[in-house]
Structures
1.
Amino acid sequence: MLLNASGCLDALIAPDVARSLDAFVTKTVTPQPRDGNTPVRIAETDVGMLNSIGLANPGIDRFITRNLPQLAELGVPLWVSVGGFETDDYADICSRLDDHADVTVIELNVSCPNVEAPVESAAEIVSASRLATRKPLWAKLSPAVPDIGEVARAAQAAGADGLSLVNTIRGLKLDDRTLRPVLGPGHGGLSGPALKPVALAAVATCYRATQMPIVGMGGVQTGLDALELIAAGAQHVALGTVLFADPDAPARIRAELYAAAAARGWNAYEDAYAVAHEEPLSVQATLDERSSV
Amino acid sequence: MRRERLSVVANEPVGPYTLLRVTCGGLDPGVPGQFFMLEAPGRLLPRPMSLCLAPRRELAFLIDEVGPGTAALCRLERGDTIHVLGPLGNGFDLDVERPLLVGGGIGIAPLPYLSEALGRPPAVLGFRSDRHAEAAELVPNAQACVEPTLVTELIPDGMDVLACGPAPMLDAVRALAPGAQLAWEAPMACGYGACYGCAVEIDGELKRLCVEGPVLRAA
C-alpha cells in the first residue's frame, strides 16, 4: 500500500494526487488551531530539505466539522494524524474521532523531538489513546532516540496496531552569506534522500523488535527505494518530500516498484517483505542477481 | 495542474538575468501572474517562476541566478529537458480601467506577459544598476529608473497599479496605491498547497501564498 507522509499533501487542494494513493494521511491535527511557525519555513540542502511548518492545522473542532466531511467525499481511506502536547490531548482527539466511520486509522504523532523520555512518553500516549478509541492506532516514531526498538516495543505493549517510521530528524541550515539560520525558528526537520538510510535502519530494527506492521517512509524517491523499505520490514510505504517535487510520483513509484520486484524474480512486491532479515545470499547468487537487474 | 517534461529552446542573457525559453508542450500559459514549478537539474526541489512571456508554442521565464537551483536553470542548453508543473496560483485580475505596471528588479518577470494581456499599458520599472535596467527592454512602454531613484517616485495618482518586486517595494506601493494588485514571492517546496512552506501573513492570518496568491489585493 502506498500512502503519503503526514504533512506532505493537502487532499482538498490536490484531490487527484490523494486518489492516486491507497490511503490519505492528514496533516497532524491538534486540540487547538495552530497558525504554525514564523516564515521562513522551508529550505533545501544538498541532501534533503528542512521544514519548520510547526503543525499548522485548523484544530480538531474545525477539522471535524469542516475538513472531515470533505475528505470523506474523496473516496480514499483516511488516516488522521493526531498530535498534542500532553497525553490527554491525544486521548481527547482519539475519542472525538472514534465514532466517525470515515476515519480508517489514527496515526499518533508521538515523535515530538523535544520529549526527553521517549519510551515512557510513547507508552503513555498510546495507552491513553487505546482507551479512547477502537480504531487501529499507528504510532509514528522519531528515529532520533537512543533505541528505537525499545520505543517500538513500548508502543506495542501499550496497544499500538502498527508503526509509522520515520519522522524527520532535526537539522540546521545557515545562510552562506550571513551565517545565520535560514529558517524562522532556527532549526527544522530534515527529510528527503538524507533520511533514507536512517529510515531503513529504523524499519529493520523495529521489525526485529516487534514484527509489527510498519509504514516505512524517509527519502523515497523511486520504486527501488520503496522496495528496500519493504525488504527491511515495512508492509507499506509512504511518500513525503518527493510529492513536493512531483505530484505524479505515486503512479511513477508504483510502476517502478512493480518493475523492481519483477526484475528480482518476484511476482509481487510483497514477496520482498523482510527479506533483508533472511540469510545473506551466496557470493555467486549475489553476482547472478546483480547481472540480472 | 499538469506536469510535463519540456525541451529547452534557448537560454538568452538579458542584462544580468537569463531568459529561459522552453517548448510549451500541453501546458496552458495561464493568467499573467500565475507561476510554474521548474525542475532544477541536480536539486531536490523545483523552483517557482512566474511566466514572463508566452510566445507561440513556448513558455519563457526570466531568471536571476541567486543560488544553486537558479544556477542550474541558467546553465540549461538547447535540447535539454526539464519537468514543468503549472500554471499555479492566482494571477492578476485583468479587469482594470487605467492599468499601470510597476516592477522592481527581477520582479519585472511577469510584466511582459501581463503587458501583452492588457494591451501594452504604461509601466514604471526600478533597478539597482544600469546593467540590471537592460531588462526593461522586455516590457513595452516602460519608463525605467536606477537607484537611488526609486520606482515609487514614478507612480502617478489615479492608476490601477499591478506590481511585482521585492517586499519593501511592494510595501511602499501598497502605501501609495490602496487597492493595488501585488505579486509576492516566498520560498516554496511544492507550489500546489502541499508543503505549507510559503506561508505569509494575510489579513492577520498565515496563509499559503501558492494557494491564496501569489497576486494579492493591497488592503
2.
Amino acid sequence: MKHHTRAALPATVLLLLAIASGCSAPAGDTLARDWRLTVNGTTEKVITLQEVRALPSVTGHGYCVSTTGARFGPYTCRGVDLRDIAALAGGIGPGQQAWVSAPDGYLWVFDADQLDGKDFVTFDENLKEIPSPPLRIILMYEQNGKPLSYDDGGPARIAIVSEQPGVITEGSAWVKWVDRIEIREG
Amino acid sequence: MVLAGTSFFSGCQSPAPVTLKIIAAGSLLYPFAEAEQEFEASHQGVDVQVEGHGSIQVIRQVTDLHRTADVLAVADESLVPDLMYRPMEGSDRNFTDGYTPFATNEMVIAYTEKSRYHEEITHENWPDILARPDVRVGFSNPMLDAAGYRSLMVLQLAEEEYGDPGLFERVISDHFPSTVRVRETGGTTVISLPEIMRPSDDHVVIRDGSIYLISLLEAGGIDYAIEYRSVAEAMNLSYLPLPASINLGSAEYADQYRKVTVELGFPRFSTLGRERVGRPVVYAMTIPANAPNPGLAREFIDYVANESLAGRPGWPAPLARGVSR
C-alpha cells in the first residue's frame, strides 16, 4: 500500500502540472467529436469525422520526408481520396485546384493532375529518386490501424499513398489538422 | 521540479542530463552538427538536440505549433521580428524581444565534374551556359526554402549587372507554361510565381530542399544548382562565386537587392504574406521567452557566434563582431 502511494505521487504531480500548464493536445475522442471539415466548391458542405469515415475508404502505404531529410513513417494509411471529398462540393475539374488548409495557418495547393496522383517526386528509403508508382492523395484518419493522433495531425491530415511499400514523398504536402478544402480555378 | 521529485523517489544518484533543444534552418545543419559535438564536450551533462526545418517552419514550431525550444536559428533575420515580436497566447510576454545576427551567406552556382560545360564556365559566360538548351539548372522550391526565392532574385539582378535583359526569361520563365511572370512596378521588379512550381521542360528542376538538389547534382541529374556558398563548401562541391551586387551577400548592396521582389503563388503560412523582398542574407538566433534553459541557450548562441567569427569551412561567413538586435 505504501509502495502504491509513493508511485502514485509523482504521477499526480505530473497530472496537476499538465493541467496547470494548459497541456494543449486534446483527447482523441473530443478531437474527433468536435472536428468539422468545410469543403467549398460550387457548393459548400460541412461534414463530421463520422461522415468522412462513411465515405469509400482507401488504404495504402505512406512515407514522407521533410525538406531537411527527416523521414516520417512508413505508415499504413487509411482515409478518403481527396477527389471524393471534393465531389461533396461539386468536384474538381481540369485546371482547378484544391486549397487545403488547417487552423495552425498552414496551406498547401494541389492541382487536378496531382489529385490524379501525377507529378510527385518520389524517393526510395535511401532518398534516391525513383520513378513514381501510381499515387493517391487521401484525407487520412487512421494510421497503422489506429485513429490518427493529434501529434500526428489528427483527426485528419493529408497523406500521399501508394500500393507499393517504401515509396517516400515530399512531406510539405502532408498537411496536418486539415479543416478546410477549397476548390478554386487555377 | 518534476525531475527532482522523480529522482528522489527512484533514488537516482547522478543528475539527469539537460536537453538543449535547438531548431535550425537547413543550411545551418552542418555547422550546428559540429557545434553540437563541441558544446557537449565542454558542457558535461548537456545533450544538444538539433532539429532542421525551413526558416519559417523553425519559428512556427514555437509560435504556431506550441512546441518548446531553447534556441531558434534562421536564415533570414527579418523573420524574427516579423513572426515573434508579438505576445504569446495567454501571456503579455512576446515570443521574443531580440535576436543575435551572427553570419551571412551568398548565393553561388554549384557544379561538379559531371556538369556540362563546367570546364568553360566563367564569371563572364555563366548566364549563357545556364541558358543552353542541353543544360539542366536546379534550385529549391521558393515556397519552401529561402534559397529558392533567393536563386530567382540572383538571376533577375544579373540582368542589370550583365546588361542582359532576357537572362531571366531564357534561364527560368521560358521553361514554365506562362506561369512565371515578371513585371516592373515603381522601380522594383516583381517575379510572380504560380501556385504549383511545375516546369514545362527539363531545363529547370525544382526540389523541396538543398539536400535533394545536391544529390541530383552529384548524380548528374542536374548540371548546376544555385545554392548557398556554405552549403557548396560543406558538400565539397565546385562553385562559381557571383558578383557582390547580385549574390545577396553584401550589406553594401542592400539597396540594389531591394529592387527585386518574389511574389509566391500562395501564402503557405497565414502569419506571413506572399511577398519576399530582396535583402542581404543574415542568419539570426533567438531564445524564445518560454525556453526551458535560457542560460544554456545564451551560452550556445555565444559559442556559435564566436565560432562563426573564425570563418570555419562549411559555416556561413562571419558578420561584424558584437552585433545584437
3.
Amino acid sequence: MAYTEQDILAGLAEIVAEETGLPADSVTSEKSFTDDLDIDSLSMMTIVTHAEDKFSVTIPDDEVKNLSTVGDAVSFINGAQA
Amino acid sequence: MTLQIKQSTGPEFSRILGLGAARGTNVVTNDDIAGPIDSSDEWIQQRTGIITRRRSDAHVTVIDLAEEAALKAIAAAGITAQEIDAVILSTVTYFHQTPAGAALVADRIGATPAAAFDISAACAGYSYGIGQADALVRSGGARNVLVIGAEKMSDFIDPTDRSISFLLGDGAGAAVVGPSDTPGIGPTIWGSDGSKAQTIRQTHSWQDLRTQPELGWPTLRQEGQTVFKWAAFQMPVVAQQALDAAGVTADDIQVFVPHQANMRIIDQFIKQLKLPDTVVVGRDIADTGNTSAASIPLATDRLLAEGQAKSGDLSLQIGFGAGLVYAAQVVVLP
C-alpha cells in the first residue's frame, strides 16, 4: 500500500516519539533531527530501522546522513515506496 | 564385509564446569582518553554507557591474560590442568601468525599435550568456542575443553580514532567445558555476513605495513551506524533463535549476557526480546569497556561473583562482531 506524505509524517512522528519521549506533535517537517530534536546517530539508526519496517522501504545506511530534517526523511520514504 | 572404522562417542550432555576472569589492572576514565578524540565524558557515557575501561600495562601480553583467566577457570571447575584435553583461544590481538597462542597457554598452565588452536571470530569468539567445546565433548573428541576469550585491544587502537578505539579494553575470560548428566549448553546458533567485512576492520594488512612502512601500525576502525543497526536489530533475531533451539522462552531464563559492545545495543536487545525485568543483564561494559572475545565470560563471571546470578541459572549469551560473525547459545551457569 502506498502511504501519503501526511501518513508518512504521522507515522514517522510516532516512531520518533517512541524513541525519544518527545511529543509526536513536536515532530514537524522543518525540524532538524540533530539540532532541533537532539537525536544522535544511534537513535537515528533506530528510527530509520523502524521506518523501514513500518513503510516497507529500504533506507541505505549511507543515505541516512542526507536526511537532515524530518521533511527530508518523509520525502525519501515517499520516493522509496514501490 | 567392508571394514568399518570406529567412531568416538561422548557423554550425552556437556556443561560449563567453571569460569575465570582477568581484567587489565589500569582503570582508564573517559577523561583520560577524551582529548585526542575531541570528546567528553558526557558524550561517551551517553553514546556508549562506558564510564571506565580496563587496560593492561604494555608488558602484559594477551597470553599472560589468557593464562591468568585459564588457571582460575580450572580451579573453579575443580579439575587439574592435566585433565584438559583441548585448549581453544579466541582472540584477534595475538600478533603471531604462528605458533597458535593456545599452544603457549596450554604449555604454561600445564595442560600439554592437550590439543590447542586459536579461533579468530572477534567479539563472537567466546560463543564460537563454547559451541565448539560443546560439540567436542559430546562427540567424544575431548573430555574437558578450556575455552578462553583473551584480548589486549590496547595494542590495536589509535587514540585519535573516534569510531571504535575509545570503547576498547583488555582482559580475558575462560570457561572449562566438560561432561554433564543434564543438558548444560543449548544448540549454538551461529553464522556470518562477509558482505559487511569492511564495517569492522583493521586499517591495513601486515603485508601493507611491510611494503609501505610509512603507513605505521594497523589499528581498528568501524562504521558505527551500520554496525549498530546490524547488532541492535538483526542480532536479537539470532538470540531468539537460540532461545527457541534450547526450547525455552524469555520468561524462562534468569540471565542475559550479550557481548559488551555498547550499552545502547544491550538496551535494544532487551526491548526486542521482550525480556522481563526479572532477567539479570550483564552490563560490565560500564566499567570494563568492550573487550571483544573476553566480554561475555568477564560479564558472566562478574554477575556470579557479585551474587546477581547463581549456579544453575539459565543464561542466554550472544557474541557478534567483526566478520561480521555471530554465535548465541543458552547455557546453565556453573
